[in-house]
Each structure stands twice: as C-alpha cells, then as structure tokens.
Design brief:
Radius of gyration: 32 Å
Distance between the termini: 63 Å
Structural class: mainly alpha
Number of strands: 10
Mean pLDDT: 86
CATH topology of the largest domain: Lysozyme
Order of helices and strands: EEHEHHHHHHHHHHEEEHHEEHHHEHHE
Low-confidence stretches: 1-25
Number of helices: 18
Strand order of the largest sheet: 1-2
Helix content: 40-55%
Number of domains: 3
CATH class of the largest domain: Mainly Alpha
C-alpha cells in the first residue's frame, strides 16, 4: 500500500525536526502504516502491561555524529549490509529522538517476540537481522491490521498467508499467530532470496511485492542491487530499507542514545497444548483464574475468542504454571456455560409447518372484460373487493379491459 507521509533527509547531524521543513537533500516518504503502527502502540491495550523504566538522561543530550553512526553500523554483528547514508540517518533520528517512548516499548516487547522470530529464522538458515522486519511492519503488534488488509506481526495479506499454509477463516487467523506466521515469513523470505540473492532486494520485495522490484530491475538495466534500482522503486519502498537499517541500529544501540528498555509483563514461561474441543476464552479464564486479556495476548489468532478444536486439533498457549491445571480441568472447562458461549449455533432447524389453508390455496387470473367492475368481479368469485385490490396492489377502483387480476380461492 503506497500511502505515505513525506519527510526530508539531511546530511548534517541534528535533531529530527517535528516539521517537514529545512531538509536539503531529498524527499523521503514514511509509510503511513508504519506511522500508524508506531502511534497505535501508545494507545493499544498491551501498553497497560508495560512498565516504563526511567533513564538517566541529561537535559541537553550530546548529538551523535554521522561518522560515529557509520562506525557503529560497520561494527554490528550481522551478515546483511548496513550501509550509512543521509536517509538512514534521518530514520535513526526518527527512532531515537521523535519515537523514543515507542522505542523503549519495542525493546521490552522484543524480549518476548525476538526469540520466536530467531527460532524461525534459524530453522530456515536466514540472517537473524531479519527479526527487525516485524518492528517496522507492525511495531511488534500481533493483531495489527494495515489499511490494505495485511495482518499480524509480519503483515501477511490473505492470499500470501494461505500460500504459505496459514489458516484464515472467520474463527482463526493464523497470520496473527506469532509462531506460525514467523515460520511462514521465514519460508517466504527464503524463497525471495532464492530469486534475488540480495537481502536488500528481498526486503524491498517483501514491502512492495516481487512484481514492482522486477520492474525496477528491468528499468535499471537488469542490475540486481537495491541502491542501483533505488530511483525506480515505489516511493514507500525507497524508504523501507533505510527504515530497516535504522531499526537494526536503533534497537542495538539504544542505550548509547539514553533509551531504556521498558518492562513488558509477559509471562516468563509459556507452553502450548493441543485440544480437540471447542473452548471459549471465558471458560478458560473462569476455571483457571487468568484474565481474558492475558489469554488474548498469548493466543491472538482466535478472532472470536473461540478455539475450534472440535473441527481439528488447535493449540492454546498458556503460562507454563497453568498447563497442568488446564489439562486436568479440560473436560470441566469445555462444559462450563457451553450452551451460552460455544454451542450457540443450531445444528438442525425445523421450519414452521405451512397452514392447511395456505396449502389448499389456489390462484387464478381473471381477464377484465368491457363493462366489468371490481364489484361485479368480486361477486362472481365470491371474494371481497378489498381482497382483490390487496392481491393486485390496486389503490382506487379503476380497472381497464384486458387487465389481468389475481384471484385467490
């Protein structure tokens, strides 16, 4: 989705201005979905679980020069290129100056989500730096939905999600499942790399689709290098790789910018159980003494707070100290208020029988002859004038020769 807001890049070190004025190099575009995800972080319910950690900041923080940032990027332990330029600098300023509060939240959320991402990336032998893609895609919000309909931490569209084996229906949306969507994203990234053999092009294709990247490559003469085809890419995608580099830098070097990791109250240890019963979150909440919000946080893939284990085995994730109790009480959980919470769909419906009078009802049509009136016709068939008018949507009393009138007997 190429909806975006415009900012500008600058070459000299300075604070990132709250306006879009005064930058002298080139116009940058911040994707609106990126901005929305960052802003939503300040109002989303998950932030009620975040405890802010104060930093020992000074009133006049010393500016970090371009040369220092460039050196730090070169020293990062990664295999993907992290080059420096004025665009990258602008987005680093965006994270470390304008979005300091959200960056502290992202650092806290990363403790929970990054280990899931890394497991999937390791499974497909991909660079661990790719764990920062969901940072810019969704601001680590597992239930984020973009204006284009992409959903989850990795912002899959429905068609792509299904292509990589994710279940998506009215009850379940595995694009919102942190583990399954991470595995699907890693597989998708691996497939993109097999096409381009360049990680920056992979990231660009993840943002705007392979079709746009392929067109840019053709227009650039066939070169498969992101920075060479840069000017031929959609405006949003030209900003996407610089944002990705900036996210890597900002989260890795946050402490050097006096930004502290906020503490997120995720369960320290969780486990997963496969169930074959239809269970509602409220049933689990009541019987185990855990809030529905906590269950939602650990199981965001269930759209209606219903786990449809009766259709096929489905997983439920809970704090590890509740797993044993859940297994022991599963039968009791599944029957608690089942009729009002999960058994609300009628399996069979018998329609009301049709009254005998309606079954025997016969409809005939009378063709009006010259000189006939509604009164004479009603007398002929033994029905009232009012009924004839009602059956034929006649307002007054006028009828004309040749007109066909419906008569019910």
């Amino acid at each position: 989705m190429l909806t975006a807001m415009v900012v500008s890049a600058q070459n000299k070190p300075s604070l990132f201005d709250n306006t879009t004025q005064g930058f002298n190099r080139e116009t940058l575009v911040i994707p609106l979905d990126f901005t929305y995800a960052m802003d939503h972080m300040l109002s989303d319910w998950i932030t009620t679980k975040i405890r802010k950690v104060p930093c020992d900041t000074t009133p006049m923080m010393q500016l970090v020069t371009d040369s220092i940032i460039s050196l730090r990027l070169r020293k990062m332990p990664c295999v993907m290129e992290m080059p420096f330029n004025s665009n990258v600098r602008s987005f680093i300023d965006l994270y470390t100056l304008r979005r300091k509060r959200q960056l502290g939240n992202l650092l806290g959320l990363s403790d929970h989500y990054f280990k899931l991402f890394e497991n999937s990336l390791e499974k497909f032998k991909l660079p661990l730096e790719l764990r920062y893609l969901p940072v810019i895609e969704s601001a680590l919000n597992p239930v984020a939905v973009s204006s284009a309909g992409a959903a989850g931490l990795w912002q899959f569209m429905v068609a792509t999600g299904r292509m990589y084996g994710l279940e998506i229906n009215s009850l379940v949306d595995e694009r919102l499942d942190p583990i399954k969507s991470s595995n699907a994203a890693a597989e998708y990234l691996r497939d993109l790399y097999s096409i381009y053999n360049d990680w920056h092009l992979v990231i660009a294709a993840y943002n705007c689709g392979p079709g746009n990247v392929n067109r840019a490559i053709r227009r650039a003469g066939g070169t498969k290098d992101y920075w060479t085809i840069y000017s031929f890419l959609p405006a949003e995608t030209r900003s996407y790789v610089p944002i990705f580099i900036a996210a890597n830098y900002s989260m890795y070097y946050a402490s050097q910018h006096n930004i502290c990791k906020n503490i997120v109250e995720f369960p320290k240890a969780v486990d997963t159980v496969m169930i074959q019963q239809r269970v509602h979150f409220e049933q689990i909440s009541t019987m185990l003494g855990i809030t529905v919000d906590q269950i939602k946080m650990l199981n965001p893939q269930y759209r209606r707070e219903i786990i449809p284990g009766d259709l096929k085995p489905h997983a439920v994730t809970l704090p590890v100290n509740m797993i044993g109790k859940f297994i022991d009480k599963l039968a009791e959980i599944a029957t608690y208020k089942a009729d009002s919470l999960v058994n609300t769909r009628r399996e069979e419906v018998m329609p009301e029988p049709i009254p005998v009078s309606r079954v025997l009802e016969k409809v005939i049509y009378h063709k009006v002859k010259k000189g006939q009136t509604l009164s004479s016709i009603s007398a002929r068939y033994g029905v009232s004038v009012t009924k004839i008018k009602q059956w034929n949507n006649i307002r007054g009393s006028k009828i004309v020769p040749g007109q066909r009138l419906k008569i019910k007997k």
